[in-house]
Amino acid sequence: MEPQKADQLAAPQAVGNAGAVAEEKVADVIDGKAIAAQLRKEIGQGVESLKAETGKVPGLAVVLVGSRKDSQTYVRSKKKACVEVGIKSFDADLPEDVSEDELLKIVTDFNANPEVHGILIQLPLPSHINEQRILSAVSVEKDVDGFHPVNVGTLAMQQRDPLFVACTPAGCIELLQRTGVQIAGKYAVVLGRSKTVGMPAALLLQKLNATVTVVHSRTPNPAEHTRRADIVIAAIGKAEFVKADWLKPGAVVIDVGINAVDDPSDKRGYRLVGDVDYKEARKVAGAITPVPGGVGPMTIAVLLQNTLKSAKRTLQASSSS
Ligand SMILES: Nc1nc2c(c(=O)[nH]1)N[C@@H](CN(C=O)c1ccc(C(=O)N[C@@H](CCC(=O)O)C(=O)O)cc1)CN2
């Protein structure tokens, strides 16, 4: 897809008012749902070409432990997306009380399975399981979630490209690049320093030559930093925490938060909001991702992209030798 300019994404809204027509510029909406659909289309084409070349399709192992409703929903969406693009999924649905050793054995078996090119362990895992031990047991070459310490460490070193980068931060960068947002030379603020989103997002932005500040729960006056930022990535998990007056006019805002807030008027009894006060922020920002329909769909599309990349590495190497 041709990168779109941020200001080509949506027309400014005209706001009428008793006779006089005032024009209020609102931020462009970065449509993650549409961009993810385009990315899945490209992945589907890549899968077809790989199949024509090698006779094989990419395989993704999807490991779910326990019965958390949100994890079940995400896993269902991932398997559905696999079907859509032609990736074969391998399931392991395990009970909440599965032992760490049993889980390790399942990971080891998937590591050895030549039909499996990517292994996804849906997080969070139950508290009796050492998450780091399990994530480190996934083969680096099949770590399509980008959580293995070697892939994390390679990204942190900045000199080389890791085999895989975690899907949510990679999805944020893909959104910026596909909407034509310039990153090099810009000042970016990442809110949140989690291992899965904040830190890798900051490292990716820095690798792309942005100047980056990571703001976290112990940063005094976080708004002093965000107000200077050309790009803000919000990943703190606090509903509508970032207010309009935290933003520089024209800033590009990527909202990673997915927070459920009570809403009796919604049939689910709740609605999802981001970490940014979207309605107010749209009056100040230049472009912004909505929640839902922003970063979330990109997380799944990048997982498929990483799985295709892994399958190509393995299958094209073996077909040429
Ligand atoms: N192994 C992993 N575990 C988790 C990850 C991850 O990347 N790898 N990320 C999150 C959950 N997640 C994927 O697993 C995820 C979250 C949200 C969405 C999404 O598309 N959300 C929709 C809204 C969905 C709804 O209405 O409920 C949206 O934002 O539009 C996809 C994937 C934690 N675990």
From TrEMBL:
Q: Report the catalytic activity.
A: (6R)-5,10-methylene-5,6,7,8-tetrahydrofolate + NADP(+) = (6R)-5,10-methenyltetrahydrofolate + NADPH; (6R)-5,10-methenyltetrahydrofolate + H2O = (6R)-10-formyltetrahydrofolate + H(+)
SUPFAM superfamilies tied to this protein: Aminoacid dehydrogenase-like, N-terminal domain, NAD(P)-binding Rossmann-fold domains
Q: Which Gene3D superfamilies match?
A: Leucine Dehydrogenase, chain A, domain 1, NAD(P)-binding Rossmann-like Domain
Q: Tell me, which GO biological process terms does this entry list?
A: tetrahydrofolate interconversion
* CDD domains in the cross-refs: NAD_bind_m-THF_DH_Cyclohyd (cd01080)
Where the record annotates domain Tetrahydrofolate dehydrogenase/cyclohydrolase NAD(P)-binding, the positions are 166-313
Q: Which UniProt keywords apply?
A: Hydrolase, Multifunctional enzyme, NADP, One-carbon metabolism, Oxidoreductase
Q: Which domain of life is it from?
A: Eukaryota
* MF (Gene Ontology): methenyltetrahydrofolate cyclohydrolase activity; methylenetetrahydrofolate dehydrogenase (NADP+) activity
Q: In which pathway does it act?
A: One-carbon metabolism; tetrahydrofolate interconversion
Provide the Tetrahydrofolate dehydrogenase/cyclohydrolase catalytic domain boundaries: 30-145
> Which GO CC annotations does the UniProt entry carry?
cytosol
Family to which this protein belongs? Belongs to the tetrahydrofolate dehydrogenase/cyclohydrolase family.
Q: Quaternary structure?
A: Homodimer.
- Main role? Catalyzes the oxidation of 5,10-methylenetetrahydrofolate to 5,10-methenyltetrahydrofolate and then the hydrolysis of 5,10-methenyltetrahydrofolate to 10-formyltetrahydrofolate.
Protein name, please?
A: Methylenetetrahydrofolate dehydrogenase
Organism of provenance: Klebsormidium nitens (Green alga)
